[in-house]
Amino acid sequence: MKKMNFLMLRSAKISMILSLALLTITLEVKCGARPSHSGSSDDSNTSSSTGSTGIDGGTVTSAAPTSIPSAFTLLTPTDGAGVITLIPTFSWSDSAGEQSYTFELALDKNFTAPLVYSINSIPANVIDYAIPANTLIDGLTYYWRVTAVNTKGATTATNNPYSFKITESAFSLTTPTDGSLGLQLAPILTWSDSNSSTLYTIEISTSNSFNTIDHTATVQPASTLYSIPSGTLTYSKAYYWRIKSTKSTGEMITASNAPFYFTTIDDPSSNNGNEPQGEEPGSKKPK
Q1: Rounded distance, CA 196 to CA 253, Å?
Q2: Number of domains making up the chain
Q3: Which of 21, 68, 165, 218 could form a disulfide with 141 if both were Cys (CB 3.0 to 4.6 A apart)?
Q4: Does the reported pTM lie above 0.70?
Q5: DSSP string covering 103-125, please?
Q6: From CA 242, how far away is CA 255, in angstroms rounded?
């Protein structure tokens, strides 16, 4: 009887131990489970900021501006400057907090419409701008201003507006130098650039008065050289040449040191030693 009671007690104890072990395992499993972070502010992959996907696949956040762009100033061309190019580059100091810049160009300081030129999409942190060709006309005075813009508002440069004037730069003949002798029959003519030119006209004559033109041609202002075509010149002859620049107003300006004089080589097949034909170079250099 005692033995039976002992066995029953031992069996009950074992059952209790097993129940406790099972309960312990259940609790450990529950405690060890990873909690869900869906919607949780602690999730490192979730941000309350708006952004866009960067080039590396990450998120690039851009904080919305809290105020209008900071003050900045116009730099070049300086106010009242004379500019000798029709495609100047404008520059200004950088504003903080801008999202874009607006550039405006006018013929009066009040920027009365219509404007000569304007652009409102210059990217942030770009602090210079070259206007397109054929925008400016030489001899005129222009006014320019820049405005920094963001979603909170706009800030104009503190020293707006600046003015400048397109001034003509003189140009001159360079090579072959005046009085060159014995040139080949297809020499290359060169000259310095004229900032206001829309077209160059080359004129070659055997007369220093250019009463008759033996050869003429035109080249675009991007070029300041001209190769005389074969068959244009003849042996043992004196020639005068000059370049004229056509301005945007239609006015033609002759190179300041024109005309230049040169002679061509003797005919290799002849040994007569003839002097170059044509007028002898004199002091008269008509413009």
Answers
A1: 10
A2: 2
A3: 165
A4: no
A5: EEEESSTT-PSSPSEEEEEEETT
A6: 7
Residue type, 178: D
Name the one residue in this structure whose structure tokens are 């909170």. Answer: 152
Read off the pLDDT of residues 244-280 as tens digits, 9 standing for 90 and up: 998 777 778 899 899 999 999 999 887 655 555 555 5
Residue 159 corresponds to which amino acid?
A: N
Please state, in angstroms and rounded to a whole number, the distance separating the CA atoms of residues 72 and 70.
7
CA 112, CA 107: separation in Å to the nearest integer? 8
Rounded (to 5) percent helix, strand, coil in the chain = 10, 35, 55
Contact indicator for 261, 281 with CB cutoff of 8 Å: yes
Residues 135 and 105 sit within 8 Å (Cβ to Cβ):
yes
Contact 122, 103 (CB under 8 A): yes
Q: For position 238, which CATH number holds? A: 2.60.40.10
Domain that holds residue 141: 74-166
